[in-house]
Write a structure and sequence with these properties.
The chain is an alpha+beta fold. It contains four helices and twelve strands, in the order H-E-E-E-E-E-E-E-E-H-E-E-E-E-H-H. The longest helix is centred in the last third of the chain and has 44 residues. It is rod-shaped.
Length: 212
Amino acid sequence: MGSALYLLLLSLCVGMIHGDDFAVSQPDRLEGVEGGSIEIPCTFTYPDTHTPRGYDIAWRRDAFHGEFILNLSQGYTHPQYQGRIEILRDPAKERTGTIGIKQLRRRDTNRYFCRVAITGNRSVVWQSLPGTYLTVRARRPETTTDHPPSSVSAASQHSVEGGDPLPQGLILIIKVGFVLTILATIWLVGMCLMKRKEVTDSSDGNLCGETK
């Protein structure tokens, strides 16, 4: 009697998972990035002779009989996934129980199992056997590249190549000082020429007086 009951239960379990064209398909592995979003696909099939009246999609984690993180019919969401997990498509129209998880966390790394239950001329519950193993990688730090401003003078470009760039105000002071130096040099040369002319005129006048 015990053996017969065991075989009956075993056959029912196998029928729920694989038999009579009832099947659930999930990818073996997926990978996401911390802070990002990901879809975990789940599609299911059942015989054309079956006419479902209702659908229930549930998801577990950790193991085949692990804790539930989402149950559509009961409106249940695990506290760690509140506001982050949802069924993405209509199970009745598309025969899918695909979920989306957003704001991924490193601790979301786990194995996830999709369970499908339908009612109709037969009430059947079946679930993916291997599930999907999700790996959540750490986010890479963002790198920025600084570019020099496009409107820089030749002097500042030269200073960037040779060392630290000169401030624009300092460059202006240098230019003004250079111009003032040139003007002062011209003025001094002019004064010297005027003095020399005065001396020359005075000497010529003395010479003329001695001749007379």
